[in-house]
Description:
Helix content: over 70%
Largest sheet: none
Radius of gyration: 16 Å
Oligomer: single chain
Number of domains: 1
Number of helices: 5
Amino acid sequence: MNKFIIILILIFPFSLIANENPKDKKIAKYVMENIQKDYVNCYSFYKVAAESFKKAGKDKSLIDNLEKSADAALKYNYDLGEIMGLNSEVMAQMTKDKVNNFVNLANKDFSSLAKKYGLVCKNLVENPEQRTNYWEKKGRKIIK
């Protein structure tokens, strides 16, 4: 719940500024869309990692932590999607498709998947402000 409040605090100022400046409105939308995609990716990564580690007989506490992170990412994905006005059925299908995509990637090369998403997802779940700042900075560079 605390992280959801943080997300709202981070994004709410964008919406206030966005009412005054079209560029800021576009940046706010860009940030929200990308953070939401990050949460879908991280949910998918954590679910696939947890299942892979279960099959490999890894420590239960590690698997539990991965599943807990997956649950948090899924919740924030849906919370942010609601704020953005996305339909829950559309979000469910997007999430299902992404999980299936990650399953295929993991079957081909799990270590590359872990290398690409492991640290990004850990940071997103633990410090969403950092990722929000990343997308804002990137948005300010590309949106004119």
